[in-house]
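User: two proteins, same treatment. go.

Assistant:
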Amino acid sequence: MLQRVLEPEVMDTPEEAVAYDSMDHSVVNALFADQLVADLLVYRQQASLDGVQRTLTLLDVGTGTAQIPIEICRRDPEVRIVALDLAEHMLALGRRNVERAGLVGRIDLQCVDAKRLDWADGEFVSVVSNSIVHHIPEPLAAFREMARVLRSGGVLFVRDLLRPATLAERDALVDLHASGATPQQRQLFADSLHAALTLDEVRQLSRAVGWPAEWARQTSDRHWTIRSHEVPVG
């Protein structure tokens, strides 16, 4: 099994932010947003929400340049999102992206450490995260904080890269999914895959914070997902 090799916890140079923001994440971001919005619908149905109650406040942990919150807000007009990251240059680009999308009033970008959240227990109806876990050397602290601020019965949707078993598998994934990328972008992707967790590691962390292990599944050739509301009502 390929051993985990950490990459920097915070990617916070202008060059790294631009390289990340310019990568084509459109397909995986759209899938993430579509599935999350479907889970929010399930939550609303289960909670019998109507009228003003249908407006939900989400926390996006590790928002990067805010591409995921923008996609979610475009699909669901009844959400407000607090989006956090530790990388100031990522957030600077994120603020530009949010402004261009016309979503300044709905997406609040903040510089906050995922391992030390500022909010009260159960503050958020939903906690989402895309591709931040592999940046964190000891992810248990971030898992505990996400579990703490998520309302009981709320919508949890966490997705990240899955560490391949071998270097050959890693390189094949880079060739498949980043064939048209720049050398810098290809290296970023390879490093991220090498820093990612295995499904067994994700399930161990889930159990440690009280989430059912079966919420965590492999959902593509390079992703795992923890999803609490996937099963439709009835």
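Protein 2:
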Amino acid sequence: MANDEVILTQEGLEKLEEELKELKTVKRKELAERLKLAISYGDLKENSEYHSAKDDQAFMETRILILEKMLTKARVISSDNMDSTKVGIGSTVLLNDLEFAEKIEYQLVGPAEADVSNNKISYESPLGKELMGKEVGSVIHVNAPMGVIKYELLEIKI
């Protein structure tokens, strides 16, 4: 894979497109109104509302550029071409933590849409790397700061 390629699931692509649309339409308009109001307060040198709005505008415009670049380099992983017997990008896996006997489910995604709080991990993460290509029944060993964590791969969903 090319280094600059952005790998996304269809859901991830739609989420980024929606964020870009929101920033370009709604958020730009809101910031323009904030700036207009802040300018009306006068002296811009000591106008904290103005400086705050300008900072927010710079952040937003940077985010828009990042999203546009990501979307032009996006490669969407389709579930149609996935092998349901092996873990790949887009797979959802059910794991059993062998030490604590806890089951956890993760979806392997590209780094751009990884979100551990929503159980989406990057295929480039330590666990993601170990999972890639594995089959049901495999035992995965992940090096973590607290030691090696062992998981059993119970199920692969597409």
